[in-house]
Structures are given as C-alpha cells and as structure tokens.
Amino acid sequence: MSHRTFSLMIAACLFLYNACGERDRKGDLRFSAPTMKEISEDATYSKEDSSRANWPERFGFGKKASTADIIALDIDIGPDGKGLPEGTGRVKNGMLIYRQKCIACHGATGKEGPYDVLVSKGESDKKAIGNYWPYATTLFDYIRRAMPFDAPGSLNDQEVYHLTAYLLYENGIIDSMSVINARNLSKVEMPARSRFVLDDRKGGPEVR
Amino acid sequence: MKQKKISRRQLLGKMAALGLVLSQDPLGKVIQQGVPLPQNTDDPTKKLGVFPGKLGTRSSAEQLEKLPTFTSSRSPLQNFYGTITPSDLHFERHHGGVPVILPEKYELLIHGMVERPMKFTLTDLKRFPSVTRICFLECSGNFRSGKEEMTPQEICGLTSQSEWTGVMLSTLFREVGVKPKASWFLAEGSDAAVMTRSIPLEKGLDDAMIVYAQNGEAVRPEQGYPARLLLPGWEGNTSVKWLRRIEVADAPFMTREETSKYTETVKDGKVRQFSVVMDARSIITFPTYPVTVEKGWIEIRGIAWSGRGKITKVEVSVDAGRSWYPARLQEPVLDKAHTAFRFLWEWNGKETVIMSRAFDETGYRQPFYEELVAARESKGGYHFNPVTAWALKGDGRVFLDNNDFSGISWEK
After folding, report:
1. Does the CB of A41 have a partner CB in chain B at under 8 Å?
2. What residues are paired with B24 via a beta bridge?
3. Nearest residue on chain A to B375, judged by CA atoms?
4. Do residue A149 and residue B121 have CB atoms under 8 angstroms apart?
5. Taking burial as the number of CB atoms within 10 A of a residue's CB, which of A207, B16, B79, B223 is the most buried?
6. Is the predicted ipTM greater than 0.95, yes or no?
7. B20 has which bridge partners?
8. What is the C-alpha to C-alpha distance for residues B223 and B204, in angstroms, rounded to an integer?
C-alpha cells in the first residue's frame, strides 16, 4: 500500500470517527465502543496494521456481486420500513393463518405458549410484543425470515403482512379494521419503545 | 535381501493367531478386543497395544459430555485443564439448529454502503492475509442458580475458548471500500433462523474476524462451519455463525435478537439495549460439586475472563469473603481470554465457603449477586456475572452456595 493510500485510509477513519461523534451529539444511537485512538492502540490491530505496509491497494480476491446476487439475499427490514415489499396486512386474514400455522407453539391467542409468549397479559413481565418489542418492523422481518419454526421461510410476503397485523391487533396496538402496509408499518407506535436505553456499562469500578 | 512387507491383513491374521483382535466399535473407534488367553492379565506391558489409527480417541475412562437442552448445550468446565476447550466440547447455542453447508457452495456477500459490493468463496477468504488469536466466546445468558447440587457446567457452561484463525474483517472492509458515512453493519447467518445482528462498524474495524478454523482445523459445524463472524469479548450471539451476508449501513437494523431477546430490564422499568460486551467473571472449577475433597493441601483452580481486555487479578476467599488473597494467574494472560488461576490452600477440615472474583484492566471487579440486583433492580437476565460461592462441608463434599455475600467487606 502506498503512503498516499495509507494517508487516505487514516483520513477516512478520522472522517468516520467524526461522523460517529456527530451521531452522539444528536443524542441518537450513541455506542460505547472503543474510540479510533483506542483501536489504533489495540495490540492485535496494530500488529496487523504494521504488516499492511506492503499490501496492494486491493487483493482482487472474490467476485463483484451483481444486483441480482444482492436482491436474492437482502431480506432485512429497517426500523424506518426500508426493505418492506408491497402488500397489505389484515387482522382477520392474519387470525386465520395464525390458527393454522402458529397456534401449536404460541397458544390459542398468543398468550399461552408453550414457546414464546407473543401477546402481553397486562402486568406480565414476559417479553411479549405489546410490552417489550420496540419496533413493529421487526415483526415482519423476523416472521418472514424464521417462522414457522418447523417450516422456516415458508410464508409469503402477504401472509407475513397479515400475521403482523393480527399480532399488533392482539396486543392492542392497532384496531381490527387497520390495514398494514409498507408505508405505515414503521409508523406504528410500539408501547415499549420508550423503555429502551443504550448500554451504560463501561468497565471501571461501578457496578451497572 | 529384499525384506518382505507384511500387509495389514496378514498382520491382523497373525495377531488373531496370538489371541488379539483389533476391531472397530460402532463409533469407529479402533478397540482391542481381548480374546481370553490362558494367562490373561490387566498388565498393559503384557498385552500388545492398539496400532496407529486415522483418528485419535478420548480414553473411554474419561466421560466428558456437554449438557444439552432444546436450545443450548453446556461445556463441562469442571472437567477441563488449562484454558482451551476441546472443539467437540465447545458450548452450543443456536436458534434454528445446525445447518449443513457445503464448503464449495459457501459464499459471503458484502454490500450496502461500500464502494464495491463483493462476494467471497471460502477459497477466496483463505487467500487473504490470515490471523490467529485465542479468545473466549460466551453466551450472555450464561447464569443459572437455585439449587445446591449444581456443577460449574450447569451454572455457567455457556462459555468456551478456542484458537481461531481467519481473516480480519477490517481486511475485507478495506477490500470492498467501506464508505465514510457508514457506522453499522448487519451480520446474517444461513441457518434456519437466518440469524441477524447489527454491529457497530467500530468493532468491525477493531478486532472482528471472519474465522474458518478453530483449534487447528476447520470450524466445527456447531460453531459455524464453514465460516463465522468472531467478535472477541462480545456476547456470543453477535458472533454470527454460518455467516452469509454483511450489509454495511449508517444505522442499526433493530433485529429481533437485539430488541426483544438479547436485551435486559434494568432500573426504572428501562430495557438496556446493545449491551454486548461481556463483563469480567471468574468461576472456581475445582473443588466444586460433585467432588469430595480431603483435608490438607488443595489447589483451588478456576478460570477468569473479561470482554474488556486482560484479567489483571483474581482473588480467592476461603473464609466466606472475610479475607481475600491473590491467586496465581497462568501466563501468558491474553486479551479477552479465559485465564487459568490457581490458589494453594491447606484446608483444616472445617466447614467453610470458598469463592473467587475477577478484576480486569478497566478496574472492574466482578460483583456479588446482590450488587447486580441492586444496580439493575433485576434478579437475573442477560449479562449476570456474579461471584459464585462454594460451600465446603466438613465431610469434604462441595455444594453451590446460593447465599449472598455482598454485605461482606471487599475493600482489602
């Protein structure tokens, strides 16, 4: 790697550091990860870094990923709704799918188990959707990627929308006539959202 | 004169004539079946041994087993010596079973906020400059208590240590050109749970690795074959196994695991999120339930570790926390690694309680259970790393002591 490239990398790192700092000031997602200074002092990293002096700018291993390659795997849904497909979720349809495919693990109404309790029972401390999940988009993302447990990834987008609507309804978050779609799912206000705080442990003598 | 070679078949034939048969048991172990001879003996010097084989075996006298449940399987910490976990005894925690992935079909896609979205085969990953390091991996839900008859395996067997080899993630990020405004990335596995976690880019540029080898051989299927993410010192779930995709972004994705699962309730009804670093912890692994010890000299042994760096000190108490003494740490003490500690003690045979507590280079001291409960207003959950105490009875039996010792002065 040329001296110039290395300088550019350092500059990029500093820029990155500043970008993270800006997020801090906005009170956004502050994260107590090591600073860039600490990173450069880390033994593993430093050792690795010093050996990089004669690295080529790129090794050229691997292949360029095509748009099709990316689309095939890029299934995540962001908390802003980014990635949501077209479709509409209706409570009634969701209830029918739930009774067919979810009831065995999650109970008749989502409160009974035997596995994860999905619907909060008021004062219950169980981590249910209504009293613990901070983002509604996570429901769509997770149901689509991993449910049902014995047939993961078998639900189509439309079924996932219906189930999302039904579970939000059962938790008292939307009413029975609400229709969920790519535009409004991220705007659903989740009761537990305000409970979430970032990790404040940072080592040192204080027990947190 | 040309020496006549004896074939394996001929040799076995000759040995059979001598009354010895080498055969394979159902698990593939070569075993020596003794055909009773007139002067049969247990003296190993009077019996021909087993010939070299293709795979080594564990002595059948050593009954080492993980302790599986529906969702996890625990390492038998009380049976280990030193700090490296034998690969077949590494703890397991997965959310949709262990997938079968053919190495020739494996690909890692890196896309999102990068200059060049790329996909890498396993062969590609192995061509990059490689790095080897030792570190622990621990599940953040690694705390059980509640009865006296509990082994270290049951209390905190969701921690293991390996020597890992792979490519630094920073090397791959350099190759694809991470854009300056990026600050997080998503790691996704190709198991049935399609496991996903959001990781701050800083960790990715620090000591994160994509590893394809564990203890000198390919990563085991249960640990992420053929390649996994490794985030030293962080809760195990973030080191996504069977890694298939990394998406670089400027915000976390708020996946199910980092919102509704690997978070913990703390004071004032709050929920702590992105609590990923494993705090310092130690546990005595000898003497512990279910062993019985004799009066006299006992070497108290255990392991200590911290996700924030090196262990600086382990203290042992043999009088229920009234006094504490420094244990001997086995060198070299490694960053974010299980560290063996030992404390030689002459037991007078009187009932007492023994315990250990770890300190790390941030000045952190492993807390007592009640200190954690008070700090978090929560009696358990993720990242519970309290001092574990063992009650030593007058007859030499050892049990988990569930009493709390937070009232005892630790300033010494």
Report:
1. no
2. B30
3. A208
4. no
5. B223
6. no
7. B34
8. 20
pLDDT of residue A16: 40
Question: How far is Cα B306 from Cα A133, in angstroms, rounded to an integer?
Answer: 30
- Please tell me whether residues B4 and B90 are part of one structural domain: no
Q: Do B129 and A55 touch (CB under 8 A)?
A: yes
Same domain, B5 and B111: no
The verdict on a CB contact (< 8 Å) between B269 and A152 is: no
| Shared-domain flag, residues B251 and B288 | no
Architecture of the CATH domain A79-195? Orthogonal Bundle (1.10)
**Segments making up each domain of chain A, as ranges:** 3-60, 79-195
Interface membership of A74 toward B (CB under 8 Å)? yes
Q: What is the domain extent for residue B394?
A: 281-401
Q: Which residues contact B84 (CB under 8 A, 6 or more apart)?
A: B134, B161, B162, B163, B215
The CATH number for B392's domain is 2.60.40.650
Distance CA A109, CA B250 (A): 37
Cβ neighbours of residue B281 closer than 8 Å, sequence gap 6 or more? B156, B304, B305, B306, B358, B366, B385
Percentage of residues of chain B with pLDDT beyond 70: 89
| Contact (Cβ atoms closer than 8 angstroms) between residue B172 and residue B308 | no
| Of residues A31 and B181, more confidently modeled | B181
B252 and B285 both lie in a single domain: no
Q: Is-contact B248 B180, C-beta < 8 A? A: no
Query: Could you report how far apart the first and last alpha carbons of chain A are, in Å?
Result: 44
Q: What would the mean pLDDT of A35-48 be, rounded to a whole number?
A: 44
B318 and B348 fall within a common domain: yes
Specify whether the CB–CB gap between A53 and A1 falls below 8 A: yes
Q: Please give the average per-residue pLDDT across B361-377, as a whole number.
A: 96
At residue A136's C-alpha, the angle toward residues A131 and A141, to 5°, is 120
Cβ–Cβ contact B163 with A under 8 A: no
How many domains are there within chain B? 3
Assign residue B205 the CATH number of its domain. 3.90.420.10
Phi-psi domain of A17 (left: phi exceeds 0; alpha: psi -120 through 50; beta: other) = alpha
Which positions ≥6 away from B114 have C-beta within 8 Å? B173, B176, B177, B178, B179, B182, B248
- Buried b or exposed e, range B210-243, using 16+ CB within 10 angstroms: bbbbbbeebbbebbbbbbbbbbbbbbbbbbbbbb
